[in-house]
Amino acid sequence: PARVVRRHPELDLALLRLEQRDLQVKPLELGEPRAMLAPGEPVVILAGPAQGPRAKGDPDDRVAIPGRFRRAVQLRTSTDALRPALALDAEVLKGDSGSPVLRVSDGRVM
Question: What confidence category does residue 67 fall into, taking pLDDT thresholds of 50, 70 and 90?
């Protein structure tokens, strides 16, 4: 369980305060924005059953989906703003959008 502390809607980010002390997984570290992935670099998407509308977010239900970075892209939001995104080669399912993408070489979230 977590509580939303702060939101940044333009960047689709939220700061959460965890209500549980005994975490089942270690918090992930963010990669530096300038440390862009190289084309073809391996990544892992942490997605799966934990993503649905009734998801409990249990880390045991996560699925590690292997993939490769293709290129950086800009996506237009509903307010017509441009937002950075990653184009990947991976087999994902509807609902996997927004899942963390980890760089294999150092485990950081990109």
Answer: very high
